Amino acid sequence: MRSHTLWASFRYAFAGLGYALHTQRNTRIHLAAAAAVVIVGLWLRLSSIQWAVLVLTIGFVLVGEMLNTVAETLVDLINPGYHPLARVIKDVTAGAVLLTAIAAVIVGLLVLGPPLWERLSRALTLPTAGP
Fold first, then answer.
1. Which positions ≥6 away from 18 have C-beta within 8 Å?
2. What is the predicted pLDDT for the residue at 4?
3. How far apart, in Å, are the Cα atoms of 120 and each of 36, 114, 129?
4. What are the residues whose beta carbons fall under 8 Å from the beta carbon of 128, sequence distance 6 or more?
5. pTM for this structure?
6. pLDDT tens digits for 95-131?
7. What angle do CA 7, 61, 106 make, to 5 degrees?
8. Residue 95 maps to a domain
9. d(Cα 51, Cα 123) in Å, to the nearest integer?
10. Residue 40 sits in a domain of what CATH number?
């Protein structure tokens, strides 16, 4: 089915996003984690370069999760029963998402860690009483 208008293409794309969000628990988990990162990033007043790195990382994880959904759905469509190769496809795509999530955690620690540590250290340091 080919889209005849640009708006129809966008509608189909948003329908795909909606499908992933409503049917895939892990997509919702990744989105919740992304929201937490954005909130912390706003609190820390990150630089535009730091935001660029985080946005690309978040996008990378969400795209990986959606491609995993595509692979699993396609395998189920082609072969609804059990097949060892179907399991390999599902396991490998799930593994790819796991790698993106691990990379995202590392990026998050590198980008958010230092300014978060500095902010928390300042907040937890009690002022000393003068003589």
1. none
2. 82
3. 17, 10, 21
4. none
5. 0.87
6. 999 999 999 999 999 999 999 999 999 888 866 665 6
7. 150
8. yes
9. 24
10. 1.10.287.3610
Residue 111 maps to a domain: yes
Residue 131 lies in a domain: no
Active site residue 118: no
- Find the domain containing 90 and state its range: 9-117
Q: Which residues contact 75 (CB under 8 A, 6 or more apart)?
A: 86, 89, 90
Q: Which of 30, 65, 68, 107 is catalytic?
A: 65
Q: Tell me the longest C-alpha to C-alpha distance in the chain.
A: 80
Residue 21 exposure: Cα atoms within 13 Å on the Cβ side: 8
**What is the number of domains present in the chain?**
1
Q: Which two tokens stand for residue 126?
A: 């009690």
C-alpha to C-alpha distance for 73 and 77, rounded to whole angstroms: 6
Instruction: Let me know: does 60 contact 102? Beta carbons within 8 Å.
Output: no
How far apart are the C-alpha atoms of 25 and 32, rounded to whole Å? 11
